[in-house]
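User: Let's play a game. I give you a shape written as tokens, and you guess the letters that built it. Ready? Here's round one.
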């Protein structure tokens, strides 16, 4: 439905309002839904609702509906108050069966190996992002669409990563602190702090909530090994749905336990490896073989689960899905930790030290920051 459509025909029954739009589409609105969405029942300042469903009549019956000057006026039987709804509002909130699109709708990329991180994803200089709100709006929008974006020129100071992170969202503190250092140590409590290569994974599925976005700042990049790997979990999951639908279904309905124990943390959470929205779209992937705890599965259920789990693991190992980049000193990458899997190639800390600093951002704060900036520009354009 186009956003410019106007009313061609308006009709009503006691329990329903119907609109035939001039662009040929039509919409239906239940009387109770309209009664539930009266503007007058919202606080004019905050926009929050002043009533809940128990305050409303169970079966409000529409007596009349008229259209005038872009507004539909509805009167109900036995109610003194009419309701007014703008056409624009009705169009925006109609249940027309289409998936709601936003500027932040993911643009999936499956074949990461064919992509060039420098060419195909959003990059910005840290100093430019600090000073240009329009650049930041664009960069954050690309981050949300692609699930990953990059900065360069981030100062190699303790605060560098936090100054950069503040341009995207709010840091969430964990038992690792507000920031953590990824470099090799003897007897690491997490294999991330070793020289080992790491396959594609998401971080910390044992937390509640799972870290939203991850930021990694290359303080000292390794010139030999230690390349960063990324894969689009949404695209790989959709590929799995198309190619191995039964295995995909098993992973969406099997709760997998994840746990982490250290001196100062005892963490446990259960979630499916592939998480869906109520309408069946992939909304998150959680894959971290280092922190999977024993599943409590009957022998009968174990076989299909392990088969599906192996299938997903094999897909994640396919080099064609891997975007590979050698970060340089001062580069920073930010990615959606519930969508974009990450890993690295092995390196030798004895030959070349490698030091990344990381932090997590709450997921909602990054979406909010991007939406606020976009609202600012919309308002400017409207005025
Ligand atoms: Fe990680």
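Assistant: Ready! My guess for every position:
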């Amino acid at each position: 439905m186009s956003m410019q459509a106007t009313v061609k025909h308006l009709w009503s029954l006691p329990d329903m309002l119907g609109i035939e739009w001039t662009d040929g589409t039509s919409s239906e609105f239940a009387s109770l839904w309209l009664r539930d969405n009266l503007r007058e029942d919202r606080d004019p300042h905050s926009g929050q609702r002043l009533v809940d469903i128990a305050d409303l009549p169970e079966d409000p019956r529409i007596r009349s509906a008229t259209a005038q000057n872009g507004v539909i006026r509805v009167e109900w039987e036995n109610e003194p108050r009419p309701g007014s709804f703008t056409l624009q509002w009705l169009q925006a909130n109609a249940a027309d069966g289409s998936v709601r699109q936003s500027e932040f709708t993911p643009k999936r990329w499956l074949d990461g190996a064919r992509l060039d991180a420098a060419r195909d994803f959003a990059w910005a200089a840290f100093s430019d992002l600090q000073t240009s709100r329009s650049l930041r709006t664009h960069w954050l929008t690309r981050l949300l669409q692609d699930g990953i974006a990059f900065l360069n020129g981030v100062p190699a100071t303790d605060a560098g990563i936090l100054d950069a992170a503040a341009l995207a969202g709010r840091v969430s503190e964990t038992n690792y602190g507000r920031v953590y250092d990824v470099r090799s140590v003897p007897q690491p409590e997490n294999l991330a702090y070793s020289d080992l290569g790491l396959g594609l994974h998401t971080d910390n599925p044992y937390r509640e909530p799972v870290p939203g976005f991850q930021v990694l700042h290359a303080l000292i990049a390794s010139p030999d090994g230690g390349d960063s790997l990324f894969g689009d979990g949404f695209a790989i999951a959709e590929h799995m749905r198309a190619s191995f639908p039964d295995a995909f279904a098993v992973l969406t309905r099997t709760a997998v336990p994840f746990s982490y124990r250290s001196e100062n943390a005892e963490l446990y959470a259960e979630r499916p490896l592939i998480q869906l929205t109520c309408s069946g779209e992939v909304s998150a992937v959680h894959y971290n073989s280092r922190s999977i705890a024993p599943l409590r599965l009957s022998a009968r259920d174990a076989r299909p689960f392990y088969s599906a789990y192996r299938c997903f693991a094999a897909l994640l190992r396919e080099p064609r899905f891997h975007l590979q980049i050698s970060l340089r000193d001062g580069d920073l990458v930010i990615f959606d930790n519930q969508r974009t899997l990450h890993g690295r190639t092995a390196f030798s800390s004895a030959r070349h030290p490698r030091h990344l600093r990381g932090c997590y951002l709450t997921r909602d704060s990054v979406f909010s920051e991007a939406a606020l900036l976009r609202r600012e520009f919309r308002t400017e354009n409207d005025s």
